Amino acid sequence: MLRLRGLRQHQRLQLRHNEARIVESGVALEAQRDAASTMADMTAPLATPIPTIPLNDGHSIPLLGLGTWPMSDAEAAESVPTALEMGYRQVDTAAKYENEVGVGRGLAASGVPRDELYVVTKLRGSEQGYESAKAALGRSLERLGLDYVDLYLIHWPLPRLDKYVDSFRAMVELKEQGLIRSVGVSNFTRSHLERLIEEVGVVPAVNQIQLSPATARREIRAFHEEIGVVTQAWSPLGRQHRLVGDPTIEALAEEYERTPAQVMLRWEVQQGIVTIPKSTDPERQRSNASVFDFELGDEAMERLATLDLGEQAAPDADRHEEF
Ligand SMILES: NC(=O)c1ccc[n+]([C@@H]2O[C@H](COP(=O)([O-])OP(=O)(O)OC[C@H]3O[C@@H](n4cnc5c(N)ncnc54)[C@H](OP(=O)(O)O)[C@@H]3O)[C@@H](O)[C@H]2O)c1
Q1: What is the mean pLDDT of residues 145-163?
Q2: Residue 322 within a domain
Q3: Nearest ligand 1 atom, CA 156
Q4: For residues 193 and 138, what is the distance between their CA atoms, to the nearest angstrom?
Q5: Which of 97, 118, 152, 164 is labelled catalytic?
Q6: Distance from the CA of 234 to the center of ligand 1, in angstroms?
Q7: What is the count of structural domains for the chain?
Q8: Is residue 35 part of a domain?
């Protein structure tokens, strides 16, 4: 009798324990479902797709892409697919970022067909030179797991080395071999561009430079326009100049019912500047890419023009040494 009562008590306890587990796993399941649907919401296709603009070599480039510095391989492998799933197509990396492996994993995991992707990587300073540039691209392709890149840039001109002309010559040959779709440069001044064009006879498709309302880079942009080079903006949110939080930008964000980042990115794309904001956060990735459904008026553009700190606020590419 006693044994039977003990057994019933044990069964009741077991039952309560099981019920608790069922409730707990129900809650866990619900939480899992919530997280999955939030993730699905975050990666749902952008309401307005990212347009492309033509380059001087017959190819075209998405007007907005994902920056990946300073993502680690693990961060890039996670952040690249979320961006691609919502509709980003351009991803900007560099040998120097040491995350090409992670970017490559992210590209593959996304399932987006190769011909819809737009992958940009860069030749690092320590690998400049005719032969070494060719070998460097091979290593980048291997790390990325790709047969070609859409755009290959010389990361910094490093005039002290005096190798950017030879590097570019090698890149033009790699383009002819189909390993690069478009050749470009980064952080080049007018005189670097003039020398390159004169000695190699090819106008780069793109010059990627530091550019935001705080560093508007009017002179070099005017020169790009004159010679048919597309301007691409790095640090488009004015990271170093703390533009998120600037009162002019905040006021405009309020007026347009947008975020400060959207005001800056719209200011760029509205002028035909290709922009590559970096974010590991899917929500910020989404809002950063949601800038193709509104327009800043003339007065707003004029107010943003007052934030330009001039060329002295941008890096001096004649002296900057980064390998
Ligand atoms: N060619 C070159 O020499 C060169 C030099 C530097 C950079 N780049 C390239 O340009 C890309 C962009 O430049 P960047 O990374 O220096 O600067 P950025 O894209 O202007 O700013 C990135 C920073 O802003 C944050 N952020 C992103 N979206 C935001 C939003 N909506 N509101 C508030 N904060 C936001 C990011 O944090 P979370 O990730 O937490 O969102 C990150 O800390 C780089 O990733 C790299 O691919 C090229």
Answers
A1: 98
A2: no
A3: 3
A4: 25
A5: 97
A6: 8
A7: 1
A8: no
pLDDT tens for residues 190-204?
999 999 999 999 999
For 293, residues 6+ apart whose C-beta sits below 8 A from its C-beta are: 47, 48
Report whether 220 contacts 189 (CB < 8 A): yes
Which domain covers residue 280, as residue numbers? 52-307
DSSP code string of 94-108: -GGGT-HHHHHHHHH
- Mean pLDDT along residues 291-303: 98
Task: Quote the DSSP letter at residue 261.
Answer: H
| Contact residues of ligand 1, CB 6 A cut-off | 67-69, 92, 155, 186-187, 208, 234-237, 239, 244, 259, 261, 276-281, 284, 287-288
166 in a domain, yes or no? yes
Q: Is the pLDDT of residue 39 over 80?
A: no
97 assigned to active site: yes
> Bridge-partner residues for 52, per DSSP?
62
Peptide bond before residue 49 is cis, with ω within 30 degrees of 0: no
Residue 141 within a domain: yes
CATH of the domain at 194: 3.20.20.100
With a CB cutoff of 8 Å and minimum separation 6, the contacts of 307 are 213, 214, 216, 243, 246, 248, 249
**String of DSSP letters for 197-224:** HHHH----SEEEEE-BTTB--HHHHHHH
Atom of ligand 1 nearest to the CA of 237: 20
